[in-house]
């Protein structure tokens, strides 16, 4: 944000006292003092909560959900919520439009105030007496209004959301997050997270909060499970029957001889099993090129020990032994006819297999199979930054907004209403006494569960107990995080021609790999390694000293800037 705009906005904040500006990092004592002051002056307040919804969600459904949410927040915080549910395809445009509109309105108000001050000054200079109105720098709490409800009871009338007020909204994506911070459109939350909202640190997976801290924490990530596992399963009965030591089968590649042995037993009519359930690829391979979805000579592998701050530079795929050995293993087993179609048919058993899914796979298969992790769930940039609630710089109250966000992330009552709508209209408990599961009564209210707060605080779906989330929590504990999170890319005008050459070269080598039989695999790989070592194009793309537009240079510069400690 330019200095002029910042100065004008600050001036408006001081003059009007009508919204909370960007907060700075505060000590716990500062936070407690602020909270005590606000508590003493607590008045009825209305905050806006903006979030995306399905185009099938009706206005009536939103109003019904809003009414039930307000019964909770009004009783708990003397705070009403105006629920702004925007169709997903219009959400980003709507939020950005509101932020820009409010900023422009505040600047216009300040410019008008400045014009009036100049006019007054000019009249004074001309000797014209003008009665001055003393400007108030603080706004005294207004007396609370009351109304009589439909039951004839006098209740508080909550104020409407101000014309230039925007309180809580969902931030979607790292680029948007950085933009809002840079433009000072969202407030820093570290003081609140060290004070009245510190309980959030026990409800949100720590890596989410670590990644949300970009020279300060400006949004609360919506806690949810990340990625999925790949498990490799080894048949217990066959391991014992053929006197294998399960410790010797601790990685998938170490299972090759066991699979071949089981195939031999099948060929001789001794066993009726599928030696290998289905084709298996080296896990988490990242390909570097014009199209990241296409196989490339340049690649890297995200291993089960990596984290977001680990350097994973591009290199020749033929220097990645896990990839080379896995392809060779698949070639041999395929030629022997020992690989199945990948389907787990009821009643049929397999010697070894790789299955993707959540942590429930362990419980499902552990009686008959040794269950080992092949690849861990991986947190991506979308997981970390795709769904975060922030408090706008144009909020009526930072502390009251954080009260609502803390409540939303720690309590199932408000969380379930925001996700599923009004109880008794859109959903209800299957059993009011146990509240173990819910049933959906209407499709007039539809939300994405990851975009409405901490998923672990509400039901995973119709008829599914919240006990299900134990698997999701285990996924987060076991997860790794992508080292390419926040990486902005490497394709530019200076290297496009080289990347096009790389794509053609990669197609040639991929065709060679696919056509090579197992008997010639090692010889072919050795020959390719020598070719790659002397290839001018590959060397240029990996050059970090003389080619500043090489893939390796661009990635290396980004890494050093973001993780200078290495």
Biggest sheet layout: 5 strands, mixed
Name of the CATH first level of the largest domain: Alpha Beta
Tell me what portion of residues adopts beta-strand conformation. 5-15%
The helix-and-strand class reads alpha/beta
Write out the CATH superfamily name of the largest domain: Periplasmic binding protein-like II
Tally of domains? 3
Strand and helix layout:
Layout: H1 3-16, H2 28-40, E1 45-53, H3 59-77, E2 79-87, H4 88-125, E3 145-148, E4 154-157, E5 168-171, H5 174-182, H6 190-194, H7 200-203, H8 206-212, E6 220-221, E7 229-235, H9 236-241, H10 256-267, E8 274-276, E9 285-287, E10 298-301, E11 315-316, H11 321-336, E12 350-357, H12 360-365, E13 369-375, E14 378-379, H13 381-385, E15 388-391, H14 398-410, H15 412-420, E16 427-429, E17 438-440, H16 469-478, E18 480-481, H17 496-515, H18 521-533, H19 536-541, H20 551-562
Parallel strand pairs: 1-2, 1-5, 8-12, 14-18
Antiparallel strand pairs: 3-4, 5-15, 6-15, 7-12, 7-13, 9-10, 10-11, 16-17
Helix pairs in contact: 1-4, 3-15
Protein described:
- The chain has helices at residues 3-16, 28-40, 59-77, 88-125, 174-182, 190-194, 200-203, 206-212, 236-241, 256-267, 321-336, 360-365, 381-385, 398-410, 412-420, 469-478, 496-515, 521-533, 536-541, 551-562; strands at residues 45-53, 79-87, 145-148, 154-157, 168-171, 220-221, 229-235, 274-276, 285-287, 298-301, 315-316, 350-357, 369-375, 378-379, 388-391, 427-429, 438-440, 480-481.
- With 566 residues, the chain is α/β, with parallel strands linked by helices.
- It folds into 3 domains: 10-129 and 145-224 and 385-411, D-Maltodextrin-Binding Protein, domain 2 (3-Layer(aba) Sandwich), CATH 3.40.190; 229-282 and 325-369, no CATH class; 284-319 and 487-566, no CATH class.
- The protein has a 5-stranded mixed β-sheet with strand order 2-1-5-15-6. Strands 8-12-7-13 form a 4-stranded mixed β-sheet.
- It starts with a helix and ends with a helix.
